[in-house]
């Protein structure tokens, strides 16, 4: 299922300004260099927004530490740069295509109605071309400058996110984010293969950590914006299932996430920094999710339920875990 075609009927600020200049008969001469620079800057900002940079930050913070672990220290700075740039381009291309396909439902949701394809800052055609170009460039970039294993994994991540998640799962099943989240797990495989040219069991376990982390990370956000998703017809689990069912699945996925993170200790040849961090961080985040489930059972809602606290804590958990993973190769007893 794809989004409906056509351009937004909402004119952009630049379009409105342009209309005013034409009607005044000055042909834009009053704009001047400063106005022109602001206009170019707003366009650049809109295209950057298409790549969803805040999401990509989280992807990169999992890629670089994975490269450190795979190398047992510092990989080549050039390899890190080439992998990070290629990863950003791949994720950015996938995100742009996601916005192109979802622009109809984005227009119905408060959280997403200011995205560039909804406001008209960028036309759907230009957004589509931008996403395709980034996807192609990222694959070639990684293939030529890193290796073709990483390039193939990046291409797979793009297809998983755009086709498997956005086009097939998102509007059809409440388990959309569970299986669609596979795309968000791919950066660890890309980072590992960039260093080693292959994928090991350690990389697979890191993949599993992010896979099981995704539902307890995203479902609290979906709970917060459940009305938005309901209005847009997107069957996120918090929209179609009871809070008790959602919280029970969050607990289950969190337990599996912690198990996967601890399994890396003996199988991934990690030291005490990662080991201690995995235990403490897993215990902390696990407690927060269990507490959330307990509040659900007590009938809490809104501010008392505080789903966004779990959402933000999940980001902190993953960030600190992978920072510990990056530090671990450099610290020995």
UniProtKB/TrEMBL annotation:
GO molecular function: protoheme IX farnesyltransferase activity
A Pfam family assignment: UbiA
GO cellular component: a single term: plasma membrane
UniProt keyword terms in alphabetical order: Cell membrane, Heme biosynthesis, Membrane, Transferase, Transmembrane, Transmembrane helix
Listed PROSITE patterns: UBIA
Bilayer topology annotation: Multi-pass membrane protein
Family matches, as InterPro entries: Protohaem_IX_farnesylTrfase, UbiA_prenyltransferase, UbiA_prenylTrfase_CS, UbiA_sf
Subcellular location(s) of the protein: Cell membrane
GO terms, biological process: heme O biosynthetic process
Disordered as annotated region, ranges: 1-37
TM stretches of this protein: 55-72, 78-101, 122-142, 148-169, 176-195, 201-219, 246-265, 271-290, 310-327
Biased composition (Basic and acidic residues): 28-37
Keyword Iron-sulfur: no
EC number of the protein: 2.5.1.141
Bias-annotated ranges (Polar residues): 1-12
Gene3D superfamilies, alphabetized: UbiA prenyltransferase
Pathway info: Porphyrin-containing compound metabolism; heme O biosynthesis; heme O from protoheme: step 1/1
UniProt catalytic activity: heme b + (2E,6E)-farnesyl diphosphate + H2O = Fe(II)-heme o + diphosphate
Chief place of localization: membrane
Source species, domain of life: Bacteria
Stated role: Converts heme B (protoheme IX) to heme O by substitution of the vinyl group on carbon 2 of heme B porphyrin ring with a hydroxyethyl farnesyl side group.
Note: Carbon 2 of the heme B porphyrin ring is defined according to the Fischer nomenclature.
Family: Belongs to the UbiA prenyltransferase family. Protoheme IX farnesyltransferase subfamily.
Protein name (database record): Protoheme IX farnesyltransferase
Originating organism: Brachybacterium muris UCD-AY4
Chain's gene name: ctaB
């Amino acid at each position: 299922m794809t989004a409906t075609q056509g351009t937004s009927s909402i004119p952009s600020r630049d379009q409105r300004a342009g209309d005013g200049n034409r009607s005044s008969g000055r042909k834009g001469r009053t704009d001047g260099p400063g106005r022109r620079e602001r206009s170019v800057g707003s366009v650049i900002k809109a295209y950057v927004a298409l790549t969803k940079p805040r999401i990509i930050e989280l992807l990169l913070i999992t890629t670089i530490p994975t490269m450190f672990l795979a190398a047992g220290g510092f990989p080549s700075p050039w390899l890190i740069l080439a992998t990070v740039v290629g990863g950003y381009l791949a994720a950015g291309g996938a995100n742009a295509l996601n916005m192109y396909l979802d622009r109809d439902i984005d227009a119905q949701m408060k959280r997403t109605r200011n995205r560039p394809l909804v406001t008209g800052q960028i036309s759907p055609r230009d957004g589509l071309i931008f996403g395709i170009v980034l996807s192609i460039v990222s694959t070639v970039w990684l293939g030529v400058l890193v290796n073709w294993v990483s390039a193939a994994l990046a291409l797979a991540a793009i297809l998983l996110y755009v086709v498997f998640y956005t086009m097939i799962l998102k509007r059809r099943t409440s388990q959309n984010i569970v299986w669609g989240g596979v795309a968000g797990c791919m950066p660890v495989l890309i980072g590992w293969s960039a260093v080693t040219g292959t994928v090991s069991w350690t990389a697979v376990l890191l993949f599993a950590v992010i896979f099981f982390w995704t539902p307890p990370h995203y479902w609290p956000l979906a709970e917060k914006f459940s009305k938005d998703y309901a209005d847009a017809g997107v069957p996120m689990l918090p929209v179609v299932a009871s809070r008790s069912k959602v919280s029970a699945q969050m607990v289950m996925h969190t337990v599996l996430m912690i198990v996967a993170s601890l399994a890396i200790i003996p199988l991934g040849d990690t030291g005490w920094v990662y080991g201690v961090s995995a235990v403490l961080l897993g215990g902390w985040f696990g407690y927060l999710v269990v507490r959330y489930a307990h509040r659900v059972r007590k009938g809490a809602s809104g501010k008392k339920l505080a789903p966004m606290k779990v959402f933000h804590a999940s980001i902190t958990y993953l960030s600190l875990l992978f920072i510990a993973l990056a530090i671990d190769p450099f610290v020995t007893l």
